[in-house]
Every structure is written in structure tokens, then in C-alpha cells.
Specification:
With 457 residues, the protein is α/β, with parallel strands linked by helices. 39% of the residues lie in helices and 15% in strands. The strands form three sheets. It has a seven-stranded mixed β-sheet, sandwiched between helices. A four-stranded mixed β-sheet has the order 1-2-3-13. Strands 11-12-14 form a three-stranded antiparallel β-sheet, covered by helices on one side. Bound molecules: pyridoxal-5'-phosphate. Pyridoxal-5'-phosphate binds next to helix 6.
């Protein structure tokens, strides 16, 4: 790992403040804290900053470091591919790209089997939206242009993807008007069910029915697709009741609406299965992936389509899917993805996420029993969430002047955890996490919540 002098560190931080836009960070606020954190290395679940401090990364970077940091096998695979071929002539492909498409067809549910590769999650979602609308035209349903998504979800930063969902921390007001035809329904979050469902299953069925009501309200002949994350990352991981996904699959099929499962976060082992759709035994018409496909070692994503849908684009030039992304299917990214998936399979990381994730959830349940300010804990695999409340009975959050997010984040950091605090928190360490890593997370959270409650309650 390269080491830096204090002068070099100061210079780097100054340059970052002057020349960089860092997502979700505002320069003057960062300057007050001495500049942005800069990281230089990592192994498994731990990362080291430029000052030499080590932290346990409870967010896997941004939900993507699935096999953990420091896997030289992936670097080697990318390096070997760089020596062989780094791009291919227009309109052709390369060996690892084909092998990756074949591998994804093998490991994704049902007959998902044709991949359009992209450079990341937003492009995967854009691609899925375009496939959905173009598919409906190809089958004589040109009036179907609406896309239904859930309030509170996040599907990406580009115009189409941004028009979907609606996460409070990614407000869209600056960028309006957005994509026409984007309409929204409730998030199946059993803790705060919009329809008063008292159990996860009741909430799930009511939220699924709300999708059908919306389809009927606009008319099925105007609706192209529904897009949803199998388990939503905001707000603090909403795990739907088991009724939700089978009902949603059925509703979409009955109304000729394509179902897009956005597995950008949940894909590649995060929830204890290779893909989260497997928890409910359903096959979406299109699945979007990114992040964990390479464990973030290099940018890549894909929109993966069921054979029946993809076949509509086969047979003539007019029928073909007209869509180009220069870096989609980059052979170096494909080689890295193949090696990454092989590590997941060899080391049974989805199974580890399931087992260690249950251990984490048990630990969080103990914290819930001890701390009044924890309103709810939930999760599947290593995708867990905690809601922080001022009052458990009313589920009221702490007022904004308390600056709960900054306060908690700072306290976690002082104790060696990279964990973003807030009203709803996500805990998602790399899938190679051990029980010792989980013990560390739960122990630090316990002491931080003890301190928080002595200050605020
Ligand atoms: C569910 C989901 N879809 C899409 C995206 C967009 O991915 P990217 O930031 O790689 O464009 C994200 C990003 O966090 C996501 O969580």
C-alpha cells in the first residue's frame, strides 16, 4: 500500500475540495471537516484511509464489494485480458463477454437468457425501460408507455432511471420535467405500511393490489412495465411480505405488463441467494444488475431479458433492439466479472451471506431489545436495516436539529465502523464477512446507541 507524507495528504485533500464533485457530499461541509476521507487500500471487509486508519466497511463501498476488498485474482483476470484484447471492432464481441452472457443465462432464474451489457446500474435500468417500451411496440401495443415504480426506491441517476422511484435523499426538483409516463405506487415496507397492513403478508398483498389498481386506473393498454427492487435499499431495507412478489408477478402477467426486477443491489449473493427473486421463486421479464457483478472491481452492468421477450427483437433489422453503449460488454470488465462470480461460487458467498446475515439479524434483534431508540430491525442475508425513532409507540423520528445522521456516522467512525447513520440505516458488509466481523459491528452499535440514548432520550 502506498504511504503518503502529511504534506502530500494535505495537498490531495485541498485538490479534492477544489476539483472534485463527490456524490452526496458538499464541498464547504467537507472543508470544515478537513477535506474528504481518502482511502488507499483494503482487505476483505476492512479499508484503510490515507492517514493509516483501518475501518470495517458496513456498506461494502456502495453495496458492491461483495467478494470483499483486495482480491488479487480479479486484478489478475483483468490484467490478463488487458494483455490479450482491450476492445473489439464495432459490431463484434469478445470471448469473455460471450462467456459472461452464457454464465448469467445459467445462474439467473428461469429463462432469463439474453444480456445487454452496460457500464453500471443506471444504464442497465435505462436499457430495461427501452426494451420494455420497444417490446410493447413490437407486439402491437404501442400505447403502452407508462412505467410503474415505487415511491422511496432508487433506480439511478440518468433521466429515465431518475424519473422512477423517489428517494428523499435524491430529490428530483432541480431536474424537472422528468420522463413522461413515470407513475408511482407505495413501497411495501411492513414497518410503515401505507395501507395499514398489520403483518408483512397483509402489507405485501395490499401494496401489490395497489399496483393492479393503478394499472386499471390508467388502463392496462397504456402500461409497459413495473420496475421494483426485490428488497428495497431505502428506507433502511424494506423486506416485503412473502405475498408481494408472487402477487406482483401474477398481476403483471394478467395485464400484459412487463415485470422488471432491479437487482442492482440485491443481485450476486447479497440477500443470501444469488438473486433475490429466488426467495419467492419468480422470474421477472427483465432483470437489471450492476455493482456486485464485478464486486465493484471495474464498472459493469447488464439488462437480462427472458427468451420470450428477447425473441421479439430477432428476425429482421426492423425488429432489432436499437441501442448502443460503447463500454457495454467491455472484455476487461467481463473477465473481471467472470472471475468474481467464480469466487462467489467457489467460496459459497451467497450461502455465507445467508448464514452470517441471520447471525447479524439476531444481533440486531438483541439491540432492539436493549435500545428504545431502535424502532425496527429487518433484513435478508447481508442486507439489513435499522430504523431509529424518538418514540417507538408513534414511530416518530428525531427532529432534524438533532442531526442524527451526522451524529451517528461520526460516533461509528470513531469506533472503527463505516456505517451511515440516520432515521433509517443500512448494514451491508461484504459477503465474505465472518461472525467476528458481525460481533464487531453489533458491539460498536450497542455502545453507540447507549451513548446516543444518554444524550437524547
Ligand atoms: C437499485 C438500484 N438501481 C440502480 C442504481 C444505479 O446504479 P449506478 O449508480 O451504478 O448507475 C442503483 C444505485 O445505487 C440502485 O441501488
Amino acid at each position: 500500500m502506498t504511504t503518503y507524507t502529511q504534506q502530500e495528504i494535505d495537498q490531495l485533500k485541498m485538490s479534492a475540495l477544489q476539483h472534485l464533485w463527490i456524490y452526496q457530499r458538499e464541498p464547504s461541509e467537507m472543508a470544515e471537516k478537513g477535506g474528504p476521507p481518502v482511502f488507499v487500500g483494503g482487505t476483505d471487509c476492512h479499508v484503510t484511509d490515507i492517514e493509516g486508519n483501518s475501518y470495517l466497511d458496513c456498506m461494502s463501498g456502495l453495496w458492491l464489494k461483495n467478494v470483499g476488498y483486495g482480491r488479487t485474482e480479479i486484478a489478475d483476470a483483468a490484467y490478463q485480458q488487458m494483455l490479450e484484447l482491450t476492445y473489439m471492432p464495432a459490431g463484434s464481441t469478445a470471448v469473455p463477454t460471450v462467456k459472461l452472457a452464457e454464465k448469467l443465462a445459467e445462474i439467473t432464474p428461469g429463462d432469463l437468457g439474453r444480456c445487454f451489457f452496460t457500464s453500471g446500474g443506471s444504464e442497465s435500468v435505462e436499457t430495461a425501460l427501452k426494451i420494455a417500451r420497444a417490446y410493447q411496440r413490437r407486439v402491437g401495443e404501442a400505447g403502452r408507455y407508462r412505467i410503474i415504480s415505487r415511491r422511496g426506491s432508487y433506480h439511478g441517476a440518468t433521466y429515465g432511471a431518475m424519473s422512477l422511484g423517489g428517494m428523499p435523499s435524491a430529490p428530483r426538483i432541480d431536474y424537472e420535467p422528468l420522463m413522461p409516463g413515470a407513475v408511482h405506487v407505495a413501497q411495501p415496507n411492513p414497518y410503515r405500511c401505507e395501507f395499514g397492513g398489520e403483518t408483512p403478508d397483509e402489507c405485501g398483498i395490499r401494496c401489490a393490489n395497489a399496483v393492479e389498481d393503478l394499472i386499471k386506473f390508467y388502463g392496462p393498454q397504456t402500461v409497459a412495465a413495473v420496475i421494483a427492487e426485490p428488497i428495497a435499499s431505502p428506507p433502511g431495507v424494506a423486506v416485503p411480505g412473502d405475498t408481494y412478489w408472487p402477487a406482483l408477478r401474477d398481476i403483471c402477467t394478467r395485464h400484459g405488463v412487463l415485470l422488471i426486477a432491479d437487482e442492482v443491489i440485491t443481485g450476486f449473493g447479497r440477500t443470501g441467494r444469488m438473486f433475490a427473486c429466488e426467495h419467492w421463486g419468480i422470474t421477472p421479464d427483465i432483470m437489471t444488475v450492476a455493482k456486485g457483478i464485478t464486486s465493484g472491481y471495474i464498472p459493469m452492468g447488464a439488462a437480462i431479458t427472458r427468451k420470450e421477450i428477447a425473441d421479439v427483437f430477432v428476425g429482421s433489422e426492423d425488429a432489432s433492439f436499437r441501442h448502443i453503449i460503447t463500454f457495454g460488454g467491455h472484455p476487461v470488465a467481463a473477465a473481471a466479472a467472470l472471475r468474481n462470480i467464480q469466487i462467489m461460487e467457489d467460496e459459497e458467498l451467497p450461502q455465507n451471506a445467508d448464514e452470517v446475515g441471520s447471525y447479524l439479524l439476531d444481533g440486531l434483534r438483541e439491540l432492539y431489545a436493549r435500545h428504545e431508540s431502535i424502532g425496527d430491525v429487518r433484513g435478508k442475508g447481508l442486507m439489513c436495516g435499522v430504523e431509529v425513532v424518538k418514540d417507538r409507540a408513534t414511530k416518530e423520528n428525531f427532529p432534524s436539529h438533532v442531526k442524527l445522521g451526522d451524529r451517528l456516522t461520526g460516533m461509528f467512525r470513531q469506533n472503527g465502523l463505516l456505517l451511515r447513520g440516520g432515521d433509517a440505516m443500512n448494514i451491508a458488509p461484504p459477503l465474505c464477512a465472518t461472525r467476528d466481523d458481525i460481533d464487531e459491528i453489533v458491539t460498536v452499535m450497542d455502545s453507540v446507541f447507549t451513548d446516543l440514548e444518554s444524550e437524547l432520550l
